[in-house]
Amino acid sequence: MDTQRKPPSLVDLCINLAIENVRYIGSVSGLDSNLLERILPHCNISQLTRIENCSKGTDLSPVTDKLWKRFYEMEHGVDNANRVIERMQQKKVQFKWKQLFEAKKKEREEAENKISKKLKQSYAESLAEKQSRQTRMTTKIPPSKRGFWGGSRSSHLTNYKSPLMKKAKIEFLNRLYIS
């Protein structure tokens, strides 16, 4: 058993330092793809996007394409990614995973906006319906207790012998006078 550990190489130390500070990396133009393959897998979506945007003129897709595929699978599911691969094979076309990721993200945002608009519209309709049923203060003066032909309201009710008919007549008259 070897008790002496081999010290890390200068390249390994530099890579570890780059990984620790990946949030500050801008352009990686001119770096060897072997180094990029060790550093870039430690980036999140925004960091990888920033690095690609800063490295204009350098095609990073041989290194970043598999990273974008991984992000696609994490965001949209492995089954969805497999369907995309099947469709590309059927149609005999090849797309970069970054393009597919951005297209799917845009599609999802549009669907969310559409649902949001429907929800807002539904809420507004519900609120309008609720307000239409709300009790409101009015400036109308309630009619006097006297009936239309004179006398009290109860005098109109003496003709009915059934208490149910009498109650119905009272409710009807009350609605007339309140409205």
TrEMBL record:
Gene Ontology terms: biological process: transcription elongation by RNA polymerase II
Signal peptide span: none
Sections of the chain in a coiled coil: none
UniProt xrefs under Pfam families: Elongin_A
Cited InterPro entries: RNA_pol_II_trans_fac_SIII_A
Annotated region described as Disordered, given as residue ranges: 126-148
One GO CC term, this protein: elongin complex
Entries under PANTHER family matching the protein: OS08G0169600 PROTEIN (PTHR47543), RNA POLYMERASE II TRANSCRIPTION FACTOR SIII SUBUNIT A (PTHR47543:SF2)
Protein name: Elongin-A
